[in-house]
Structure to design on (545 residues):
């Protein structure tokens, strides 16, 4: 049974609560806990999703879906001090789902047109306005997500591996490949 | 051209946390002296910074947009919290609907079962056992239940106490009317081949022939075509008594021997009960004119029978029911003439007025 309504008014709290505490309140159905989490993490999450997709129209929906999914599964939160990696993981799952949906749509359209299917989402490239954005858009989604998590979000390789549910060696490999491709695209000297 | 530093790979490993303990300290000391590795670390750092640098369109949502999205999220979560109640309500509603549907189905089934049971009660008064070769069907037409026999053998038992319908067995070449009995009828090649009455009586009507009244123990088989046409003398009345097979001792002769009219018929005596039951059955069925004729035939044929007076009286009743006033008066006078001190005298006399 989910109880509704705040058990403790925010004004009564002097110190900000940790993400884990907010998740506990969220699991009990407190709307205000979700608001606090949103205020705390929406900017980095929005930036991550924006960099990952380069589709501004999708960002709002993906952020919304990520927080909503997190709120619904708050009871299963593992208790980490920061829930940002957890939110990233949820966002990645939504991104993948969206990519798969897009791929299916493209396959159907390609079949209707009688052309070979292209599963690569062109929107990141189309919306990239800078060299870095274009270079990032040229990466595969797996590499892009990995390098964004590592370089932008500051997640450790272990965290990335957990979030993406892949071996840590895969994370290292993807990171190395992503950096090489980015540097080549940006004209940086990969090798001295 | 400067040779590449063999520890250059450690720059990325160091950045990604793949180095541990002494390796970290060693590489950090190396960075202070190795120009190439130091540049590599700086390049990786620059790449990271370029990725982290805010770009147009990255997260350019203004405060108002963020507040709007926040409200949308909280509203959606609030709506998601409600469904447990709504879902519960929906589940209760669905459960109620399902229960209602099941109850309705149960009532319908019960009603149908009752209908079937009622129908079975009505038709269970007619129990039909068919042999494997029988081709037959049954249908109800108003107050008449018809068993249509095309070929094969049917053993039929009718309990008229449980059914208000007349039973008519439609035969390929005629029909057989039950009067409350148990009988067996068989047909083959488009004609009735045998009728055996175990209990009660039936009236058999074959096209082109007079009706046959069969009672318990009677067996009818189609007559062998006579070599001489003396059949006219065999049909003195609308309903003919049938040749009866003797039950004891068991007949060793084939059944076809019963078809021979003369030897069997000569061994049999007319049974007044058959005629009386046939007439009563006709009266019960509302076939008043036929009943009157049969009662007249009974009186004529079995004048000495104890039921002759009843037959004479019932003929009056049948004609009265038929609305035939003239013939009813004749029947009244006939009764009063025959039985001036009869039990029904006063009653019949009253009918004459």
């Amino acid at each position: 049974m989910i109880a509704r309504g705040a058990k403790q008014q925010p004004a009564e709290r002097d110190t900000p609560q940790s993400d884990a505490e907010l998740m506990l309140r969220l699991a009990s159905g407190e709307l205000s806990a979700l608001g606090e989490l949103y205020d705390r993490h929406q900017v980095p999450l929005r930036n991550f999703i924006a960099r990952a997709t380069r589709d501004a129209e999708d960002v709002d929906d993906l952020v919304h879906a990520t927080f909503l999914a997190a709120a619904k599964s708050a009871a299963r939160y593992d208790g980490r001090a920061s829930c940002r990696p957890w939110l990233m993981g949820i966002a990645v799952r939504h991104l993948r789902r969206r990519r798969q949906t897009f791929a299916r749509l493209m396959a159907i359209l390609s079949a209707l047109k009688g052309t070979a299917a292209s599963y690569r989402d062109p929107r990141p490239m189309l919306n990239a306005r800078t060299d870095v954005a274009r270079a990032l858009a040229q990466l595969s989604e797996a590499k892009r997500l990995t390098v964004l998590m590592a370089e932008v979000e500051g997640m450790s390789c272990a965290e990335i591996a957990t979030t993406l549910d892949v071996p840590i060696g895969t994370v290292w490999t993807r990171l190395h490949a992503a950096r090489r491709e980015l540097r080549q695209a940006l004209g940086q000297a990969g090798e001295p | 051209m400067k040779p590449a530093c063999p520890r250059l790979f450690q720059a990325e490993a160091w950045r990604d946390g793949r180095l541990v303990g002494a390796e970290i300290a060693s590489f950090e000391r190396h960075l202070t002296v190795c120009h190439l590795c130091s540049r590599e670390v700086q390049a990786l750092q620059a790449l990271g910074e370029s990725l982290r640098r805010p770009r147009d369109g990255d997260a350019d949502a203004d405060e108002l947009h963020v507040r709007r999205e926040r409200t949308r999220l909280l509203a959606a979560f609030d709506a998601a919290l409600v469904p447990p109640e709504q879902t519960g309500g929906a589940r209760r509603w669905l459960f109620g609907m399902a229960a209602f549907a099941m109850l309705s189905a149960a009532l319908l089934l019960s009603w149908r079962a009752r209908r079937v049971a009622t129908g079975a009660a009505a038709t269970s008064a007619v129990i039909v056992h068919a042999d494997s070769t029988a081709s037959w069907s049954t249908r109800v037409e108003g107050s008449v239940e018809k068993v249509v026999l095309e070929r094969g053998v049917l053993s039929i038992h009718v309990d008229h106490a449980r059914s208000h319908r007349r039973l008519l067995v439609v035969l390929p070449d005629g029909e057989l009317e039950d009067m409350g009995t148990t009988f067996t009828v068989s047909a083959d090649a488009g004609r009735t081949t045998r009728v055996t009455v175990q209990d009660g009586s039936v009236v058999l009507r074959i096209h082109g022939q007079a009706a046959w009244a069969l009672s318990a123990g009677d067996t009818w088989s189609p007559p062998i075509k006579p070599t001489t046409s003396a059949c006219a003398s065999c049909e003195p009345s609308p309903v003919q008594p049938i040749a009866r097979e003797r039950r004891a001792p068991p007949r060793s002769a084939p059944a076809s021997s019963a078809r021979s009219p003369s030897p069997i018929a000569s061994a049999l005596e007319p049974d007044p009960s058959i005629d009386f039951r046939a007439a009563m059955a006709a009266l019960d069925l509302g076939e008043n004119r036929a009943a009157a004729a049969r009662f007249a035939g009974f009186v004529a044929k079995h004048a000495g029978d104890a039921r002759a007076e009843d037959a004479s009286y019932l003929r009056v009743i049948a004609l009265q029911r038929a609305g035939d006033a003239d013939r009813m008066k004749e029947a009244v006078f006939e009764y009063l003439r025959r039985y001036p001190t009869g039990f029904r005298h006063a009653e019949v006399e009253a009918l004459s007025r």
Notes: The mean pLDDT of chain A is 79. The radius of gyration of chain A is 19 Å. Residues 20 and 78 of chain A are 8 Å apart (CA to CA). Chain A touches chain B through 50 residues (CB under 8 Å).
